[in-house]
Amino acid sequence: MKSTLLEAVETRFAEVEEEPLYSIATLVDPRYKDRFFTKSDNLRLATDNLILEVAKIERAASEEPEAAEPMRNTPRQEASSSLGSVLDEILEENQLEARSVSTSADVQVQTYLSEQTSPRKSNPLHYWKDNASRFPSLAAVATRFLCGQ
């Protein structure tokens, strides 16, 4: 009976590690993190998906205009510069920003995962409330995935 039950559970839940909703929710739960993934490929995929989610949050935050900081006009190199060079300059700025966002997201996720797990009886939302200043974008992702928002 025990082996039949185990086989039924394995059959029904074999693909659950590959579902982004469940895998990210597991990773951002400080009681579990990456401890219960059975396949390293699934863990790598889940970690990559989490980094992408954190990067989305950071990108959205960087695109919002800040009320305290006035818009700055940066002078172009030449008044007669071509449209192509202006577009190249904008593209270069965007690429630099995208790289720094993904690096920041990666650092937040790797730092979080390298820390010790929380006790099983602890509340994961209390953890994220206490650590929101250390992992701001990751905390936003965790709140969304753990609360179903």
From TrEMBL:
Alphabetical keyword list: Metal-binding, Nucleus, Zinc, Zinc-finger
GO cellular component terms attached to this protein's record: nucleus
Recorded GO MF terms: protein dimerization activity; zinc ion binding
Location within or outside the cell: Nucleus
Protein name according to UniProt: Uncharacterized protein LOC117546055 isoform X1
Keyword Zinc-finger found: yes
UniProt KW Zinc keyword: yes
Major subcellular site: nucleus
